[in-house]
Amino acid sequence: xxxxxxxxxxxxxxxxxxxxxxxxxxxxxxxxxxxxxxxxxxxxxxxxxxxxxxxxxxxxxxxxxxxxxxxxxxxxxxxxxxxxxxxxxxxxxxxxxxxxxxxxxxxxxxxxxxxxxx
Length: 118
Known about the structure:
The chain has 118 residues and is an alpha/beta fold. The chain has a domain at 2-8 and 40-113. The protein has helices at residues 11-17, 22-26, 28-34, 101-113, and strands at 2-3, 49-53, 86-90. Strands 1-2-3 form a 3-stranded parallel sheet, with helices on one face.
């Protein structure tokens, strides 16, 4: 289960990395995973669900999270990944994802049944 995870890279991270000390701020792990383009696909044995936010409020807007649907930090299309079981977009910001009761209910439903609530 992922909440607002940039599974297909992050345009905000790419833009931040272009700034002085940006790569240092992001750290090595982020550099390797988000700034290096590569084809990604879920091939695990278990169901994988992803919840993306659609309320565009957050610091990511300062480094380019604008234009397409996003949660203020991560674009919705960056949370999609080939091979996942289900993808759900909810009206919440990136920072709000782990604190949202509706997101918690959807997460619990997915962990119980492998499906989000309709």
